[in-house]
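Chapter summary example.
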Amino acid sequence: MASGQQKAEQYVNSFISWSATMKDDDYKQMEYRGNLSRIEIAKAVGCAKSSLLQNPKLKALLGELEDGLRERNILPKVTESAKADQSKPKQHDKTASKRIYESKRISELEQEVLSLKLRLEKYKELSEVMTEMGLV
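The structure predicted for these 136 residues follows.
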């Protein structure tokens, strides 16, 4: 069984041979949000997506590849604001799950109110008929 370092080196060699066989049109099809799709690259190389982020050599090779593709106008250029955002840590939204739950609950309650209004209309008509007939 190969050690972690041996696997990392295998992934680097696999990435190099994979990128050598790719054409510009292939890269264009792999574009996702201004970068190459990490999932598709990981499948092609035969590694986990996390390897592309954690293996320093692989990460550097991928960065160089994307920079080269940007210079050849295959991938879109990175804006200054995007460059600034890359160095900042991402903010975790603590209220996101609560907001999702609340919006789902609001939707359920709105549906319940509509169904109750329909039932109320039915009884309102019945009440009017009974009043006209003098039963109430």
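To summarize the output: Residues 4-79 form one domain.
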